[in-house]
Structures are given as C-alpha cells and as structure tokens.
Amino acid sequence: MVKQSAKSKSAGSQAFHSRSFKEGLDILTDEIQLAFQWRRPSILLAVHNSKPSQMKAQEALELEITKINKLVVRIKADSKSTDLISTMCRTSNHHGIVFFVSELGRAEDMDAQRVFRALNMHRELLVEQQIRVVFWLTKLEAASLPHYAPDFWAFRHRVVEFIR
Length: 164
Prior knowledge:
By secondary structure, this protein is α/β, with parallel strands linked by helices. Helices cover 55% and strands 19% of the residues. It has one domain: P-loop containing nucleotide triphosphate hydrolases (Rossmann fold, 3-Layer(aba) Sandwich), CATH 3.40.50. It is built from six helices and five strands; from the N terminus they run αβαβαβαβααβ. Strand 2, helix 3 and strand 3 form a beta-alpha-beta unit. The protein is globular, with a radius of gyration of 17 Å.
C-alpha cells in the first residue's frame, strides 16, 4: 500500500479544485460566446459553496467576457429591486451585455420570496428579449429556486456547480 503524504494530498486536492473551477468557467464562457454568436438568450446558473469562490469565478468570467468586447452589468437583488428581469430588459443596449445577478437571498425572507415570484412570472422576457444572464447562487439559493420559482427553473439553460 502506498501512503500519500499530507503535502501531496493537499496538492492533489488543489489540482482537482483548480481543474473543476476551470471546467466550470470554460462551460460558462462557451455558453455565453455561443449565445452571442447565434443571437440567442442564455440563462445560466452558477452554484458555489462560498462567496470567495463565487467572487473569484465572477472576476474570471468577466475577464473572458471583456475579451469578446461585451460588457458585464452586475445586479444584486434587494428589497428595492425585486423584479430583476424587468431591470435587465429596461437596460439600454442589453443585447451587448451579460448580466451577473447575485444575492437572491433566502427563500424564507419576504423579499427573497418576491424575487423568486418575479423570476417565475417574467421568465419569458428573458427569452423574448434575448437576455444573457448568469445567476450566481449559493447552495441554499439553488435549492430554493426550483421550489419557489419552478417555471423559471424549467426555463434555465445550464447549471454549473463550482466545487470548492
């Protein structure tokens, strides 16, 4: 039996996480590039274990998006902006933008319930307006989404899990 040292275990683990991170980032990048190439919407969900991992992925994806001469607009859900889809559709020149949506919150929270309800009710606008969007979710938010916004969940194009 071959024993692996603690140092080599962590090195192997780090390589695994780096590879899965890169694969997730590549999937999101490819989906966004194809959406622009084919002039179609793209509704992507990126699920993370931690906020630092989520921020790292957002920064890396934004860099890839700017390489194809597109803009990123960040939207955070809060009590003042619960209808995120209408906000995206009202943004001028949204055809050259990839929206990053985060902070959907807990489903138990009243504002979060309104956010989920608005996603469910206005989901068709994402397709009709050819919106390209990445929803950056925690595991809890990802678990709540099909429960509180089942029709929106059915409209999504891809879910990418980032393992940390």
